[in-house]
Design a protein that fits this description.
The structure is a homodimer.
Chain A (H helix, E strand, L loop, with lengths): L6 H5 L15 E3 L10 H10 L2 H5 L7 H11 L6 E4 L2 H12 L5 E6 L4 H9 L2 E6 L17 E5 L11 H10 L4 E4 L19 E6 L12 E4 L2 H10 L7 H11 L2 H24 L3 E2 L6 E5 L5 H10 L2 E8 L3 E7 L3 H14 L1
Parallel strand pairs in A: 1-11, 3-4, 3-5, 5-6, 6-7
Antiparallel strand pairs in A: 2-8, 7-8, 9-10, 10-12, 11-12
Helix pairs in contact in A: 2-9, 4-9, 5-6
Chain lengths: 347, 347
């Protein structure tokens, strides 16, 4: 059967997500999970949905309750919302809708490595456009003819953002749609939701990070309602389950809780940034819940390995044509203290 | 942005799943949900997994615990198991792995309509091969060169099965892989798991029907380990959430509970079949948790509509080149009594 696999699938390496050890031995600062629990309302909502009738019946295919809640929160029509089994599901759906075999997917670099994998699965080419040294989009944009252009904003691993006016200019330049991946936007000072009105932009969001719900898999897209109707054709009929839908709806309805955990994470991010600089790291100014750090004087891979030995996981990343660094999630204050203490002892 | 959609997406109608009214007004006999609750162990497992730590962290990407439990149950290596967000997710993954744009997907007809939608999303052609009048696979099989051939066994809407020897012969004839969709197999007298050894067959299963877990979205595939490794490249990294994984693992570990609900459903299926025949319906001999019935003397669409007015949903289906009928899920005994009483009053 192996010989019948599509050659693009056989050839690809596959996306490698960050390590997810299933025991609690490690302090996980490698995949940008929240150090704080989800809103108490999430637990209540899941417990309420935990009935025989809800489990044995199919869920609402389009997630009407979530769409209504998200529409209210974002001040958009619920028909402009697409529910997803994590925002990866949304990115997959968009790729399948717009990118033909032999097509072209483009993203700035370094950025989220999944964009390349999505292109490869689709049998399309992938090209990246290096960020300028200060993490801006080059002008003019050199590859305007992609079938989809993915812009993570804030981006990973840098945590940096480009301005709304840069995004507007890029969307105007592009011949195909622009996907604005706002997985980390709740930690930023601004967002690009208003760009949806241009009808060239699909905004994607995740509940994994800011809402502390990586375990339940929920993301969504905001776009023109006519586009959402087409994306619904591509998604699996029942892509979100009853418990995730209940959890996600409760989570976005508790904005006060989001504000309080966000404030803690932003304060710790600032302290982590300053402390790492004090330890000799070059640290990007982050608008996300992680920081990207490098150093000129010694290889960071060794630091990653030494932290790992001390049961702290951070993400070591090495990008072709750019180089390597450590992406460190912003943990709680005590987790950050432990990280900094170990780093001081290592360095 | 609409103009950048792939033409196959624009052109397709999209799969229409059975109606899922989100209130409890209707007696739902239209989408083959179980009338019985999931195993009590499922509730325990979900409650145990409902911790801050599990919700805020990413789940195990490959579902090791589920794979181990399924491997033990089925007596296969855990590496031969692929977890899916419902078996629709599995069917999607397989299609993306094997079917190129412009490729060919084949299935007997009438059968599960999603197979055509999956082909359309992929930009591939779809052809069907009519079952023989007694619901067997034609010999010789007329289209051996498909990139994927889907065989639902038991099939929907008929509920009938083809024998393992017919499947073996077909797998031998086909040039590409055969996907044996066993969503309903727990209600049947036999299964095709042994065919996986031929390395031409991928077996898919669902927990939606026999395990009463349509709401949590869980399915899986069994195939050669080398194929599973390739399919893992295609799936979303975290396609199953922590609560679904916990629920699914607990469900398959409670085989005694499955046996008891299965026995009830099979007894009711027999009674429903006989009663409908008594009312003048032509009823297929079902190996699933639904029955397919037609009648020569009057149009069944009117019966569907009249049942709907009386708050009972069954599935009216009409297939090109075959005709129409009603697919009725096997409910509890009291639900079946209510259905039969209404049918008697209508006819």
């Amino acid at each position: 059967m192996f010989e019948y696999l599509r050659p693009n699938i056989r050839a690809m390496a596959g996306y490698t997500p960050g390590e997810q050890p299933q025991d609690a031995t490690y302090l996980k600062l490698n995949t940008n999970e929240s150090p704080y629990p989800p809103s108490p309302r999430v637990f209540e909502a899941i417990r309420s949905a935990l009935t025989s009738d809800r489990l044995r019946k199919y869920p609402d295919a389009i997630g009407s309750d979530f769409r209504r809640a998200a529409g209210k929160l974002l001040d958009v029509d619920p028909d402009c919302i697409l529910i997803g089994n994590g925002s990866d599901d949304i990115l997959t759906i968009v790729t399948r809708a717009f990118v033909p075999e032999g097509g072209l997917v483009v993203s700035p670099s370094p950025s989220y490595l999944l964009y390349r994998s999505l292109a490869e699965i689709q049998g399309a080419s992938f090209q990246n456009v290096p960020y300028t040294p200060d993490w801006q989009l080059p002008v003019p944009w050199p590859i305007p003819n992609a079938h989809v252009t993915f812009i993570a904003n804030p981006s990973s691993p840098s945590g940096t953002m480009v301005s709304r006016s840069s995004l507007e200019r890029l969307a105007h330049t592009l011949r195909g749609p622009m996907v604005l991946d706002e997985a980390y936007v709740d930690f930023a000072d601004a967002n690009g939701l208003a760009l949806v009105a241009s009808r060239k932009v699909i905004v994607t969001r995740s509940l994994s990070k800011s809402y502390a719900l990586a375990g339940i898999r929920f993301g969504y897209a905001v776009a023109d309602a006519a586009i959402i109707r087409e994306l619904i054709k591509v998604k699996d009929s029942y892509n979100c389950d009853v418990l995730s839908l209940a959890a996600a709806t409760a989570a976005i309805e508790d904005q006060e809780y989001l504000r309080s955990t966000r404030a803690q994470i932003l304060a710790t991010r600032e302290r982590l940034t300053q402390s790492l600089r004090g330890l000799g790291f070059d640290v990007c100014e982050s608008q996300a819940n992680f920081i990207w750090c490098r150093r000129a004087d010694r290889p960071v891979r060794v630091i990653y390995e030494e932290l790992r030995r001390r049961l702290i996981l951070v993400r070591y990343m090495n990008y072709d044509g750019y180089g390597d660094g450590l992406r460190i999630s912003v943990g709680s204050d005590s987790e950050t203290d432990r990280l900094l203490a170990e780093l001081r002892s290592i360095l």
